[in-house]
DNA sequence: GTCTATAAGGAGATAGAC
DNA sequence: GTCTATCTCCTTATAGAC
């Protein structure tokens, strides 16, 4: 069954719907800033400003402060991103077509965001891996779930042990491609990653 | 020709040789902290402390301040890392063996550093890509050189157009594997990346 | 040249008015 | 609950003693 999801899902970090509550606006602004600038590079004052919320409201809704807000963002946007990718994969019947389509779609979204929005957790993960054990663990949980989810998807087309290596490769290629694409302001790495992923999948069948 | 380089090159961010000058110690401490904690997450006070140097010496040797120091680190450690990888690739005659060997060696180094040292520029690149155009450009230059260097190496074994996709895939897999490996404190992503890279190279020959 | 003290500003966090 | 003012600490950067 293909095309189970709409072919133009909203970007993960688009503006929040008008009329959203203060808490929702704070979460949205925080997700965007943390994803783009990392943990240390994001100031709570900026979060409040972007959310059009008073500074104190952050501590009203997130008594744990910056750490609690960041962990919430990692654990929320991580699964959202996986759902988005799995949705894209369902839009094509042939698995090789599906993989290439997902990477091409990611390339378009990256350009559309002005090369700002790639992986919602990678920037924060690298930022905190050496200094914040709680947030490192949260990011590790997210990546593990992605690989499990990817393994399940690839298992529909190849043997389980091969499926796991394919899922790992897919996550790594996505992350590497977002890093190169954002840094070079070029969508080509994502398309190249899609071609490589298609080759790997074809070789495993 | 194989084994052109020693089989145990010193880690990129090992301690500086005793008797190093103040400038060298500052550059070394900065390279390590920027690589591990990113740009915003690294304080110049910490750099001075780690370098056993007075705070003011940073501005004596780097009048441009934090930005100048960070750009120097990106442009210095980037080529060093490529040289290290190319050296590892020369230690095996068969190209598929060489690729697997390089990833296995990277996996060992990652574990040996306590999962602290992966790519010397990726953390900073993601940290600054949205906020500092100069440093973003420096990181983009480094990645472009890596892909050019990798394309030249793969061109010894496959056609030029295929060599470029292989080089891109290698950089992306390395970066993704370092991200997953550091975050999960697990060397397995680097080994999985090596297996995928071997598959891609074999498929391209 | 090496090093210290301080300036000026921004950070996270809190207290309390409304 | 919403919002403001402030507290304390830490940052980059500089001035100037030695």
TrEMBL record, chains A, B:
Biased composition (Pro residues): 7-19
Superkingdom of source: Bacteria
Keywords: DNA-binding, Transcription, Transcription regulation
Spans annotated as Disordered: 1-21
DNA-binding region: 43-62
Domain HTH tetR-type: 20-80
Gene3D superfamilies for the chain: Tetracycline Repressor, domain 2
Keyword Transcription regulation: yes
PROSITE patterns per record: HTH_TETR_2 (PS50977)
Database matches in PANTHER family: HTH-TYPE TRANSCRIPTIONAL REGULATOR LMRA, TRANSCRIPTIONAL REGULATORY PROTEIN
UniProt name for this protein: TetR/AcrR family transcriptional regulator
Organism: Isoptericola peretonis
């Amino acid at each position: 069954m293909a095309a189970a999801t709409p072919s133009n899902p909203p970007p993960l970090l688009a503006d929040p719907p008008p009329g959203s509550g203060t808490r929702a606006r704070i979460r949205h602004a925080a997700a965007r800033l943390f994803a783009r600038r990392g943990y240390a590079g994001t100031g709570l004052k900026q979060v409040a400003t972007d959310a059009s919320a008073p500074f104190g409201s952050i501590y009203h809704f997130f008594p744990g402060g910056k750490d609690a807000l960041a962990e919430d963002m990692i654990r929320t946007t991580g699964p959202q991103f996986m759902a988005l990718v799995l949705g894209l994969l369902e839009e094509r019947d042939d698995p090789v077509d599906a993989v290439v389509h997902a990477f091409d779609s990611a390339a378009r979204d990256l350009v559309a965001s002005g090369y700002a929005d790639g992986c919602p957790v990678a920037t924060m993960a690298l930022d905190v891996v050496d200094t914040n054990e709680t947030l490192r663990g949260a990011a590790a949980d997210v990546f593990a779930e992605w690989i499990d989810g990817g393994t399940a998807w690839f298992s529909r087309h190849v043997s389980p042990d091969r499926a796991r290596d394919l899922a790992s490769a897919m996550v790594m290629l996505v992350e590497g491609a977002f890093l190169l694409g954002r840094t070079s302001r070029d969508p080509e790495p994502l398309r190249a990653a899609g071609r490589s992923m298609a080759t790997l999948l074809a070789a495993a069948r």
